[in-house]
Amino acid sequence: MKKLSIILVAIFFMACSSNENKTTQVTLKVSNSFDQEAEIVILKDFINYEQENFLAQPNEDGLFTFEISISHPQTAYLTVGQNRISLFLNKGGDLHINADAEDFYNSLKFSGKYAAENNLLVYSYTTEILENYSQSVTFNKYRTTQADEFISYADQMLNDARELLSAKDLSRDFKNHYTTDITYTYYTMLLNFSDYHEYFNGVKPQVPDDYYSFLDKALDYSEKDFYVGSFSSFLDNYLQYYIRNNQEEIPAELDYFEQAHWAANQLYSGRAKYFTLANAINTSLSYGNFEKSKQFFDEYKEENPYPEYTALLQKSYEDAQRVAPGNVAPSFSLTDIDGNPVSLEDFKGKVVYLDFWASWCGPCMREVPHAKELKERFEGQNDLVFLYISVDEDLDAWKNTVAQHEIKGVHLNIQGMGNETAELYNVKGVPTFYIIDREGIIYDNNPGRPSSGDLIDQQLRDALGV
Question: Judging by beta carbons within 10 Å of its beta carbon (0-12, 13-18, 19+), is residue 59 exposed, middle or buried?
Fold first, then answer.
């Protein structure tokens, strides 16, 4: 499921911009015979979170050259061998980097229009802010502090960042975007404190009477904020916060996805409303009932005034439609845990309960004892197949987990969610379940998990016709 987390993301490019793009050139000169490929990655949008990758090979002088079309300030990520750094890019701001392969990080030298900005980003902002106030540090504060101490921690982060960004030689674009980024990171930290403290400690913390007054400023946003990753994250976090803490106001008959759709309409207007609705529909298309999701999308297309969001959702809709109930289940041919070839067609005439999972996935592993009980309830039903497709990249971890927990069924592995089979089945996260009928048709694209008890029992009996 989507994300109750603090995302310390800086500023990313959004593909939905109507501004005319201008090519920005980034060059990288690496001395001492460095011949590995270099890559710059940017994030194109905050709905599908699609990346754009730019690859370059060094010429005979060790020079890498990237031509990147951008229209707004953004953070990009440069990877060279084992080295990875953040870069600030902006339209019309060619950037030149020199480094020594023998001491890449410490030898970096920037030149060009945004040299000072990138020097601060790499050597100060990343280390003093993004690392000192990282997600792991913040989550530990959620667990171990009370409200006053947590507020002091969050205020210190905000003040430290603003002090760094106050340097006179920094451009207005850099200052504005990173100030927005850290400010909405700060708002999200405050917003989530109470719920996470309760999650870790089992009791809600006492907070000052005016604790949530920051929301007045947080919700006073501008159009430019939509190009900042932490602002987009805040909109979704506030939506989730509202749902968790206002159940008495939400119509009781709504499921999770309908609640998100309802709340987006209640909380926001203008671009924020349609951005947040797009996120809610996108999640519903990936994890919810397809027919209900289609209804949401059809309504959205009629009223949404931001065509770029509709275009992003269209891809999600097509991915979900491919594996909607009534469609032929995508075929695959893989190798099982014992090295034997297995294809979906091998199970023609049987009902398949398909589970995409991973040994490192907590929710997946919590389903294991429930799956054992489910199999016991259907013992003797030989035309029901429990088919597991692991996305573990560590094959030993996969095999050891299957053996240790005695997970009975057919076991396959695709080593990552970027595999073709995962893409065919629109797997955006694990666990993901399907029921496939005797004819190889998708019976249910979002059935109950093993832990759902009577629900999944009835769904499987219906699919079996018993």
Answer: exposed
pLDDT above 50: residue 129: yes
To the nearest whole number, what is the mean pLDDT of the chain? 93
Note whether 85 and 130 are within 8 A (CB): no
Q: How large is the C-alpha radius of gyration of the chain?
A: 25
State how far the Cα of 182 lies from the Cα of 191, in Å rounded to an integer.
Answer: 14
pLDDT for 289 equals 87
Q: Tens of pLDDT along 374-406?
A: 999 999 999 999 999 999 999 999 999 999 999
pLDDT at 32: 85
What is the set of domains in the chain, with CATH numbers?
22-117 (2.60.40), 135-322 (no CATH), 333-464 (3.40.30.10)
| Residue 181 pLDDT level (bands cut at 50, 70, 90) | very high
The residues with which 342 forms a beta bridge, in sequence order, are 334
Can you tell me the distance from the alpha carbon of 401 to that of 422, in angstroms, rounded to the nearest whole number?
Answer: 20
Bond preceding residue 330 cis, omega within 30 of 0: no
Rounded average pLDDT over 311-329:
95
CA torsion angle for 14, 19, 22, 26 (degrees, to 10)? Answer: -30
Task: Confirm if 233 and 188 have CB atoms less than 8 A apart.
Answer: yes
Residue 438's φ and ψ, nearest 5 degrees, are -65, -25
Place of tokens 């995409």: 356
Can you tell me the distance from the alpha carbon of 26 to that of 94, in angstroms, rounded to the nearest whole number?
A: 6
Shortest CA distance to 189 belongs to which of 206, 166, 165, 214? 214
Enter the tokens of residue 93: 């701001």
- Tally of CB atoms within 10 A around 162: 15
How far is residue 405's CA from residue 396's CA, in Å, rounded to a whole number? Answer: 14
Amino acid identity, position 262? W
Upper half-sphere CA count for residue 43 (Cβ side, 13 Å) = 18
